[in-house]
């Protein structure tokens, strides 16, 4: 009887400890900052960001939520970085997510310099387990911020380029933007032409392949017909 009581007490003790662990985990958790058009500029100023864009009904978003909350909790005390999230299906954020950040699916993780909203952010495409995310965040947050307001965080080459732009007049800046946009359009056209050439070559190879296979198939059918005729013919033996 004492053995049963002791065993029961042990089970109760383990259960209490388990619930205490859950309670401590929940109470120590840091709520992930929710970004909106209203607070984005102030919340992200002078910080490198790692942002989750999600929809509450999205299954993959629900699965990622505990990991993201843990990540935000572990990196909650940084002065120069921020882990946050955006609920993209509210009246305030729906068009903002698509227009400013080009969000097309959930969850999408963007990181980098929040300057001019999504202009300089890049998409995170690696694994989404905690260890991989944490390792990535650790490395990213150790990189100094580099933009016109933080030249000290830029490489010498980038700093020289930014300072060159800062010395330009408005008309010169406009001309430089037009030049770069024209170059981007030229590269896009070259890419499309290359894709068209590849498609044309693929179609040519595919056609030759189909003709060759059709010829071999016809040859096999002729051989099978001959075999069938021979099977039906009287034996000469």
TrEMBL record:
Residue intervals of the Thioredoxin domain: 10-142
GO terms for MF: protein disulfide isomerase activity
SUPFAM superfamilies: Thioredoxin-like
Listed Pfam families: Thioredoxin
Annotated signal peptide: 1-29
GO cellular component, one term: endoplasmic reticulum
Example GO biological process: protein folding
Family designation: Belongs to the protein disulfide isomerase family.
Record protein name field: Thioredoxin domain-containing protein
């Amino acid at each position: 009887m004492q053995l049963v009581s002791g065993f029961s007490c042990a089970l109760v003790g383990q259960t209490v400890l388990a619930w205490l662990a859950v309670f401590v985990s929940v109470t120590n958790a840091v709520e992930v900052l929710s970004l909106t058009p209203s607070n984005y500029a102030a919340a992200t100023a002078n910080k490198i960001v790692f942002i989750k864009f999600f929809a509450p009904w999205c299954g993959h978003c629900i699965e990622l939520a505990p990991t993201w909350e843990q990540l935000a909790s572990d990196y909650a005390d940084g002065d120069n970085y921020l882990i946050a999230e955006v609920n993209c299906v509210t009246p305030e954020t729906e068009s903002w997510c698509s227009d400013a950040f080009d969000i097309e699916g959930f969850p999408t993780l963007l990181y980098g310099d929040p300057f001019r909203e999504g202009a300089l952010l890049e998409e995170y495409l690696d694994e989404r387990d905690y260890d991989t995310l944490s390792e990535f965040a650790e490395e990213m947050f150790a990189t100094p911020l580099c933009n016109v307001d933080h030249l000290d965080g830029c490489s010498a080459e980038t700093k020289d380029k930014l300072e060159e732009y800062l010395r330009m007049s408005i008309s010169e800046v406009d001309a430089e933007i037009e030049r770069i946009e024209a170059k981007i359009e030229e590269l896009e056209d070259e890419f499309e032409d290359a894709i068209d050439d590849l498609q044309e070559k693929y179609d040519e190879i595919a056609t030759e392949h189909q003709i060759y296979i059709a010829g071999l198939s016809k040859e096999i059918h002729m051989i099978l017909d001959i075999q069938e005729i021979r099977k039906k013919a009287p034996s000469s033996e």
